[in-house]
Fold these 3 entries.
Entry 1:
Amino acid sequence: MAQLGLKSGDVITEVNGARLHNPMQGFGLLHESMAAERVSVRVLRNGVEMPLAFSLGGPAVK
């Protein structure tokens, strides 16, 4: 997950515009996104929601 720009304690709140309501939904959306070239997520980090975007096979893009 560090390759994606995620840090310990981050909570993923959105994947490709789909708001997450439970952890299982998040795993499903992340799994589906693995076929995409680019994935965007929003994470809750230190009480602040922030966007992250990355290309699969490439470095994280902020």
Note: The helical segments are 23-33.
Entry 2:
Amino acid sequence: MSARKLLVVNADDFGFTPDVNQGIVEAHRGGILTATTLMANGAAFDDAVRRGREAPALDIGCHLVLVGGPSLLTGKPLPATVPQLLRAMARRQIRIYDELAAQVRRIVQAGIRPTHLDTHKHTHLAPPVLDAVARLAAEFGIRWVRRPFDFPLSAPPGAAPRMKRLASGALGLLRKRFQGTLARRGCRTTDHFAGFQITGRWRTAELVTLLGALPGGSTELMCHPGRCSEPLRHARTRLKESREHELEALMARETREALERNQIELVNYRGLP
């Protein structure tokens, strides 16, 4: 018998702006979204906490941030880009563990019991960040950590640019150390992951195609739904109108039909075996 297909649909950036928060909750209540991760330094953190309380079935984790927004330790801006972060790490100008620990504590102190961890811009692919994330997962009893290595997928032309596909393949070279670090701390990951290659570039048709290729076992689908109104339009991010497209796809009738056709079970991290 083939393995069951279990799918966690997880939205990044809860707490980024109020309209992103709105879209995430809409995708949960009216679509297939089952989980999200909260930015402790997000401008709309309090709004996200309130909305999370009003949607108790929404599984909430921590979206740990070392790129963009204010530091919870110093109040000063964090590095604006990944290259700036890597330079700051090389010069030992950023206290990685302390910064991320402050973010987890803020989420816990807001009354949320996070079930999973991931990082903004996938910075836990860098060994020093991964070490801190794995340590925090063990210390706070957070069982699940994202493994941001896409399962192989033949995307439609234009859905995933060539450089994005090459980057995804290069990330796979880090897999062995990544898994070993998490295993030593008792952390778990889903069997598969999807969403890196097509971030900001998919609609309903691409989502239906992805669901048709879903392998057996557990998979996390990373997504970025949201409403795109004034707060998001003025925010520093390339993902603006695309969030509306993802929200529409997550709520589409064709998506529900694809789940049924491919015998995919929607779960959250609390529901994974």
Note: The chain has one domain: 5-271.
Entry 3:
Amino acid sequence: MLKSFNLAYGIISGLAFYFLGNVGIGLVFYFTSLPEETLPWLAGGLYFTSVLIGAAAAARRAGGKGLYYGLAVACLFFLVLWGLGAAVLPCSSWSSSLGHKLLLALAAGMAGGILGVFLAD
């Protein structure tokens, strides 16, 4: 049974990193002359890194079952951001880019969960 405190800690850690990273990316684009073609790559990298950090944090606190914690954090992270996005910008509920984000989240969650167990005390 997965402990909900560890999952909540991982999701909150990942979301905090994600939102602060978005502010950072916005500032970089505002103050530099980076081409806008780099934005999808930076956003995808931030998304991957945020899920990885959240999954690693949850698995590290749990001390084991990294793959389970990582996938749980990835799925919940995806659902939270999907729900926030649908609330802010109601449009079609499913698209191919959403499927790519789900796969990206699952890959990051698996890697983060394994990393978190490796870093556990």
Note: Residues 4-119 form one domain.
